[in-house]
TrEMBL record:
Keyword Iron-sulfur among record annotations: no
Residues of the Amidohydrolase domain: 88-560
SUPFAM superfamilies assigned: Composite domain of metallo-dependent hydrolases (SSF51338), Metallo-dependent hydrolases (SSF51556)
Lineage: Bacteria, Pseudomonadati, Pseudomonadota, Gammaproteobacteria, Cellvibrionales
Name used for this protein in its record: Amidohydrolase
InterPro entries in the record: Amidohydro_3 (IPR013108), Metal-dep_hydrolase_composite (IPR011059), Metal_Hydrolase (IPR032466), TAT_signal (IPR006311), YtcJ-like (IPR033932)
GO molecular function terms attached to this record: hydrolase activity
Enzyme class: hydrolase
């Protein structure tokens, strides 16, 4: 893809890194030794789910500055009120810690240069592509995003012929919302020099029917198109607005912290620019992509996991070792239903080992995308090798998605202290896709029950754009394992609403080494909290996704109010 010159991007990154370094905060103050002063904000009257056993009987909460001052009885908290104290009357509402998403891609859907085709008719996609082509300069790529092959009323996926019918002379790429596949038109194949006889690249696939290209391309095959044709360019201000817009939308869903799980140079600068403008509405754990200039630049500058401040902090470096769950390309030991297709590996064992060695040598944690059981085994082999003689604290290596597990993999995940991040809205939202896996295999996928029973700190993950990021939908999906059509997928993996709340708060903070700062309503922690219109622990499980978000507070300040 054509962007600003690398040297210019590097200058932006280094300047942003320097800014973050100057703003980096030390650990929170020792609140136990700090004399209590008057509160800036007091919340009373609601049902409090603090997610902290020590404050489980709370009736009220006081905030001073950007941290929780005290949690306790109404009488005790009212004693902290002063003449300037703001008050929130939460009667009839439920107060919870801010929700955390440990794996998402907030900037993946670049609406400045791409059209959203999350619609239910192929004819509507065609109309949107035609309109986007009219807005795109001649010869440039026409781009679309949020395509979902299983949700069309026509009961079939989009093809290159569908695109050719409306945009024949410009290259077109319609990206699946999952990010691992796309549909391109004949012009795209032509400028890339790909025809029916072109072999599949290693780690990728050109899909065919009766020997003819369908237009669907997967995994590393998508990268071939990045180097051909003229791609739209997005300026820095547009990127800043994109970061602001997406974090504002996420805050409206109750999220106070999210994750960019494959960050590039433009992404880091976008978040820094939004933060400088006072328009970053959720905290960001930034995971640089392992094959990106961002990661290389951070290593050269001596950056490492944990660098930054409470609003924007560097997390683990991210790699991807296999395909997608929602796009049915993940690498498994058994094939997809009714096929001889076992999925796609995108890294070899040697490449995985080298990535882990490099991360450790540069003081980075690592998170490797591994959906299938074959790939999870490969990643664990690399982790086990490095951890064999490990000294010091658990580095909390991560397996991103960690979708298909078995009893042996669970024991190895527990033994290595690895953090799995399975999809938390997928059972509900992507039901049509699980037909390709079958009901038996789904009993071992997105295995929240199995992780919890094994004592594993399973993290919350939407993987947006592939999955919806709304925490209330996540609660319903994990509690019911029922999709939008009423089908049950893996009822043995159901967890309680209280357990789902813990996943989305406490475990989310643990996954980024930030449990000292967030995840519970505890004195000394950041004042990130949410007001819900109903109590998730008392709501019909099949109505959890409809619980209204009344307000979201970050640092004790409202970033969303209904």
């Amino acid at each position: 893809m054509r962007h600003a010159p690398i040297n210019e991007k590097r200058r932006h990154l280094l300047k942003a890194l320097a800014t973050a370094s100057a703003a980096a905060s030390v650990s929170g103050p020792s609140w136990a030794n700090m004399a209590l002063g008057k509160a800036d904000l007091i919340v009373t009257g609601g049902t409090f789910h603090t997610m902290d056993i020590a404050t489980s009987n709370a009736q009220a909460m006081a905030v001073r500055g950007n941290r929780i001052l005290a949690v306790g009885s109404i009488a005790d908290i009212n004693d902290l009120a002063g003449p300037g104290t703001r008050r929130i009357d939460a009667r009839g509402l439920t107060v919870t810690p801010g929700f955390i998403d440990a794996h998402s891609h907030p900037l993946m859907a670049n609406e400045a240069i791409s059209v959203d085709v999350n619609v239910r008719q192929i004819s509507k996609v065609q109309s949107l592509l035609q309109q986007q082509a009219q807005r795109t300069p001649p010869g440039q790529w026409v781009l679309a995003h949020m395509y979902d092959d299983t949700k069309f009323n026509e009961g079939r996926p989009l093809t290159r012929q569908d695109i050719d019918a409306v945009v024949p002379s410009q290259p077109v790429m319609v990206r699946h919302r999952g990010g691992h596949t796309a549909v391109v038109n004949s012009q795209a194949f032509a400028i890339a020099g790909i025809d029916n006889d072109t072999p599949d690249p290693e780690g990728g696939r050109f899909f065919r029917e009766d020997g003819q290209l369908t237009g669907k391309v997967a995994e590393l095959a998508m990268f071939i198109f990045n180097d051909v044709g003229e791609w739209p360019v997005v300026d820095r201000e547009t990127n800043r607005k994109g970061a602001s817009l997406m974090t504002k939308r996420m805050a409206a869903s109750g999220l106070t912290s999210t994750t960019d799980a494959f960050g590039d140079l433009e992404g880091w600068v976008s978040y820094m620019d939004a933060l400088d403008a006072g328009e970053l509405y959720t905290r960001i754990a930034y995971m640089p992509g392992g094959n990106t200039e961002a990661y290389q630049t951070m290593k050269r500058a001596g950056m490492r996991s944990g660098f930054g401040n409470p609003m924007l902090r560097v997390g683990a470096v991210k790699y991807a070792a296999d395909g997608s769950a929602s796009e049915r390309t993940m690498r498994m030991s058994t094939p997809f239903e009714g096929t001889d297709d076992y999925g796609i590996l995108t890294m070899s064992q040697e490449q995985i080992d080298a990535a882990v060695d490099d991360a450790v040598a540069n003081d980075f944690r690592i998170g490797i995308h591994a959906n299938g059981d074959v790939t999870i085994d490969m990643v664990l082999q690399a982790y086990e090798r490095v951890l064999k003689d490990w000294e010091g604290v658990n580095p909390r290596f991560r397996i991103e998605h960690c979708s298909l597990v078995n009893p042996l993999l669970l024991k190895r995940i527990k033994a290595t202290g690895t953090i799995p991040t399975p999809f938390y809205t997928y059972a509900y939202y992507h039901g049509n896709k699980w037909v390709d896996y079958g009901s038996e295999k789904m009993r071992s996928m997105f295995a929240h029950r199995s992780f919890i029973d094994e004592g594993i700190m399973v993290a919350p993950a939407s993987d947006f754009t592939p999955g919806p990021y709304e925490p209330m939908m996540a609660l319903q999906s994990m509690v019911t394992r029922q999709d939008s059509q009423g089908r049950i997928w893996g009822d043995n993996q159901r967890i309680t609403a209280a357990e789902a709340m813990q996943v989305c708060t406490v475990n989310g903070a643990y996954a980024s080494f930030e449990e000292h700062d967030k995840g519970t309503l505890t004195p000394g922690k950041l004042a990130d909290f949410v007001l819900l219109g109903q109590d998730p622990l008392k709501t019909d499980p099949n109505a959890l996704k409809d619980i209204p978000i009344v307000a979201t507070y970050l640092d004790g300040q409202a970033v969303f109010e209904a």
